[in-house]
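User: Teach me something about this protein's shape.
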Amino acid sequence: MLALTYFSVASVAQPYQYIGLEKFSASEQQKIKQWLEVAQTATEETLGPYPFPVDLHINSRKANEPVPWANTWREGTQSIHFYIDTRFSLKQFVEDWTSYHEVSHLALPYLGSRNRWFAEGFASFMQYQIMHNSGVLKKTPRQSYRFKLSPHLSKYQQDESAIDVISNLFNKKRYKAGYWAGAWYFIMADQRLKQQNVSLNGVVKQYLACCRIQDNSLNDVIKSWDDIVGKPLFSDLLDEFHTQPAHKVFPKKY
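Assistant: First, the predicted structure itself:
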């Protein structure tokens, strides 16, 4: 049975700053704040508080969904830029996955474009963990992962390494297939952890408390996670993605 290593450094919750709200009406501002407070609270309940301030930039964009675009910025203050259509209801905003995905991105440092698969896979995995824990997800996390993964599994059945297959998908701009291939790393890690009564959510919560601020690379993150669980679980799994044929890493059916 694994036992998490607990470090003495503790996270202290930092404030979220809203930027751009003045462009919206009073009722729209209230809806935006309520929506983002749900995402913040849900993320903190699942992963713990972030030990740094976060700026939330709000921009208007007409679309056929509540949040047609969002992305994180890492220079200076950690920040997220949301582009939203306020014609949608608060319920529709809260049930949209985008805010949970983007806020969870900040649990990791910027890992560079080469490791985009890892960062996007992490956020794609975590969005459903957070939504499930907050009661927003209508399916189970496993059902949600299956729904997203199933259309792409045939693309992964190749002799090249899993990493090479993922890189090729991104190069061909098949982003959804690349994101969910990355999420498979975290699904597998969580499965292995749960066999020993530990969860990935618990590892990340401890990581935010001890190590997030000091880490700057994927190698740093993997080492910190391995240290937390007391064995090379994450580095071994990453090695499998680099060395094993993709058809051995990914299932034909999930």
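Now, about its shape. The chain has a mean pLDDT of 94. Strands lie at 16-19, 54-60, 69-73, 78-84. If you'd like, I can walk through any region in more detail.
User: That's plenty for now, thanks!
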